[in-house]
Amino acid sequence: MALSKIQIIGNLGRDPELRYTPNGRPVASFTVAVNQSTKNQQTGEWIESTDWFRVSVWGDRGERAAESLRKGSRVFVDGRFRTREYEANDGQKRLSLDITADTVLGLDKREAAPDGTFAGAPAGAAAPAGAPRGGFDDTEIDELPF
After folding, report:
1. 54, 82, 114, 127: which one has the fewest Cβ atoms less than 10 Å from its Cβ?
2. How many helices (H) and strands (E) does the chain have?
3. pTM for the structure as a whole
4. Largest Cα–Cα distance of the chain, in whole Å?
5. What's the pLDDT score for residue 129?
6. What is the pLDDT of residues 93-141, one digit of tens each?
7. Do 76 and 69 touch, CB atoms closer than 8 A?
8. φ and ψ at 63, to 5 degrees?
9. Structural domains of the chain in order of their starting residue, each with its CATH number
């Protein structure tokens, strides 16, 4: 058995897009930018680099992510990682970094309502202990409507 696990913290590059597979299963997709700073040893300058990840979130977690997250939102994503090669419009072969998320947590501060309560739970909030958790099989990737 092979395991390809990844955890990232970054910012949404666009609003989540919610779609449905032909059998009615919801899936939200969005991109996450992860910024890194490294110091050039020769010049001493800090160099910023950004890695982009495509994230898919299935089921009710995907619906919650589409409702609560927006472009620029800071998120924690935990899931399975896969690279995919494709041909870009310019004919060049490119590599896509794709994550199928098990957990997506919004890290931005939530605003309190006038009555002092907080509206909604963070996207992909963990289920109570013992609650069933959505399973994953490779057929989900083939069902992606995009």
Report:
1. 114
2. 2, 6
3. 0.69
4. 56
5. 36
6. 988 889 999 999 999 876 655 655 544 444 444 433 333 333 333 344 4
7. no
8. -65, -40
9. 5-110 (2.40.50.140)
Q: Which residues pair with 8 in a beta bridge?
A: 77
33 membership: H or E segment, kind and range: strand 26-39
Task: Find all residues with CB under 8 Å of 26, minimum gap 6, and list them.
Answer: 18, 19, 20, 58, 59, 60, 62, 63
- Hey, what are 37's tokens? 């700073």
One-character DSSP codes across 35-46: EEEEE-TTT--E
Q: Which residue has the higher pLDDT, 115 or 73?
A: 73
Q: What is the pLDDT of residue 115?
A: 58
Q: What are the residue ranges of helices labelled H in 32-142?
A: 59-68, 139-142
Cα 109 to its chain centre, rounded Å, is: 18
Contact 70, 15 (CB under 8 A): yes
Q: How far is CA 38 from the centre of its chain?
A: 24
Q: What SS3 class is residue 12?
A: strand
| Residues 78-91 pLDDT 10s | 999 998 888 889 99
The length of the chain is 146
Q: How confident is the model at residue 68 (pLDDT cuts 50, 70, 90)?
A: very high
